[in-house]
Amino acid sequence: MAIETDMTGKVALVTGAASGLGRATAQKLALAGAKLCLVDVNAESLAETAALIAEAATEPLVHAVDLADPDACRDAVTATVDHFGRLDALCNIAGIIYLANSPEMPIALWHQTMAVNLSAPWFLSQAAIPHLLETNGAIVNCASSAAFIGEAYAAAYCASKAGLVNLTKAMAMEYVKQPIRINAVAPGGMLTNIAVNFQPPEGCDVDLIKRFSGLRGQVEVDDVADMICLLASDAGRGYHGACINIDAGITAG
Ligand SMILES: NC(=O)c1ccc[n+]([C@@H]2O[C@H](COP(=O)([O-])OP(=O)(O)OC[C@H]3O[C@@H](n4cnc5c(N)ncnc54)[C@H](O)[C@@H]3O)[C@@H](O)[C@H]2O)c1
Q: Which structural domains are found in the chain, ordered by start?
C-alpha cells in the first residue's frame, strides 16, 4: 500500500529548490498540498522551479539567497512565516561538493562546504524551531552516504555530511519530549547537477573515484524526494532522530 503524504494546509521551506533533489521535493510537496517557500542561491533556476509549481499547484514564495550567510538563513525563515503565517516543515536540501587532494583544498572551499552543508541547516533550524513547535512540524536534513563511508578526495564533504547526521540526532534528543520531529536522509549517488559537475582532482586515482557509485549504481531522485516528503509530513510520525540511508547498498559494506 502506498503511503499518503498529505500536506494540505501546511507550509514548507525547501532549500536547494533550484534543481535536482530540492526541486523534485518541492514539486512533490506542492502536489501534496503544501504552500512553499523556495530557497536557493541560483535565482534563475529557482524561478523555473517556481513556475513549474505555480502551473501545477499554488504560487510559491521565492527567496533567492546565499545560505552561506547565517543572516540569510534566519531571514528565509522569517520571510516564510511573515508570508504564510506558519511553518510546518523545513527541508534542508541545498548542498555542495568540491573534490581535491586534501593538502591542496583551498581554505575558502573548506569553509564554504561547511557553511552550506552543515552551518546553514543549523542556522535555519535555530530560526525555524520556535515556529515548528507551534505547528508540531518537522525538519528533514539531506545528508549523504558520504556521511558513513570515507570517499577519497571528498574529506570536507564527508565531514560536513557526517556532522549533519549527528546534528540531526543531537537536535532530535533536545526535542525528544516535544512533538516536533527531526530526521535526515542519506542518499547515494543521484544524477543531478552536483554529480554531473563533479570535478575529480588532477592526477587522482580513478579506482578510488569509481568506488563512489557502488555496485548497483545511482539512486532515483524521486525515491529520495518521496522519503523527504514522508518525513516532512504527519505520515512520518514514527521517525525521530533517524537518518534513512537510500543508497542502493553503498554503505552496506
Ligand atoms: N547527487 C548526488 O549524488 C548526491 C548524493 C548524496 C547526497 N546529495 C545531496 O543532495 C542534496 C541536493 O543536491 P542535488 O543532488 O540535488 O544537487 P544540485 O546541485 O542539483 O542541487 C543543489 C542545490 O543547492 C544549491 N546551493 C548550493 N550552494 C548554495 C548556497 N550557498 N545557498 C543556497 N543554495 C545553494 C544549488 O544552487 C543547487 O540548486 C545536497 O545536499 C547533496 O549534498 C547528493
A: 11-246 (3.40.50.720)
Distance 194 CA to ligand 1 centre (A): 6
Ligand 1 pocket, residues with Cβ under 6 angstroms: 16, 18-22, 40-42, 66-68, 93-96, 116, 142, 144, 187, 189-190, 192-195
Report field, pTM of the whole predicted structure over 0.85: yes
Give distance in angstroms: CA of 98 to centre of ligand 1: 12
Distance CA 98, CA 139 (A): 26
Question: Which residue pairs, CB below 8 angstroms and at least 24 apart, start in 58-66?
Answer: 58/30, 60/26, 60/30, 60/35, 60/36, 61/35, 61/36, 61/37, 62/37, 62/38, 63/37, 63/38, 63/39, 64/39, 64/40, 65/39, 65/41, 66/41
Q: Which atom of ligand 1 is the closest one to the Cα of 218?
A: 3
Q: Which ligand 1 atom is nearest residue 45's CA?
A: 39
Q: What share of the chain is helix, strand, coil (3-state, %, to 5)?
A: 50, 15, 40
134 strand-pairing partners:
none
- pLDDT tens digits for 120-154? 999 999 999 999 999 999 999 999 999 999 999 99
Cβ–Cβ < 8 Å for 179, 147: no
**Coil, helix or strand for 36?**
strand
Which sequence positions are flagged as catalytic? 157
What pLDDT sits at residue 57? 87
